[in-house]
Amino acid sequence: MTDNSTAGAGRRGTTSKRQIVIDAAIDVLGRQPDASIADIAAAGGIARRTIYGHFPTRRDLIVGIAESAAADLTAIIPARAALPAEPDRAVAALAMITWPVAGRYRALLGIGRQELGDDRVLELLAPGRELSIDLVEAGQRSGLFPAYLPPSTIVTLTDGATLGLLADADAGNSADPARDVAVVALVIAGLGATDAIAVVDAVTADGSTPRSG
To answer: What's the total number of domains in the chain?
Structure first.
């Protein structure tokens, strides 16, 4: 009979090794997008058989990274009650709260779009999509945001802009990408740029959202 504690330790060890592979791949592919599994193994000090044991192909590894990103994003998204009551401030706070996850995976979004397709990459943003739509709807009802497009369309446009901002941040063209993402989200929702900047600065100043990375 297998000892339950031994079996549990084995499962934890397997999970840990899988995450080690994913972490190494994020680092290597972020610097060398065309890296092979052999390259990742060499740079990460991991045996190729270990990588192949979890991810038989490079595409499987990219899928694993995508799934890891989705799980991290789901874990960090707050409940509506934890965000500011005002919809515009809540939109800004949500954008900045989720930035650390987006930033961690930003270098891989181009790879994902090439190998998995745009739809799969946008699925990485899906855990926050329903909350984002709710916030935009609330802003339109209150008159903070103009109802010039359906909330779902506005969120889709914001998702697309976020991909572009992630690429821009990866190129080193943004001193504060979390702030930029929040400002752009508000502008797409319908605020003027000056008003959007003021909202984001206020949210940052009053500590409505944690900042990292």
So the answer is: 2
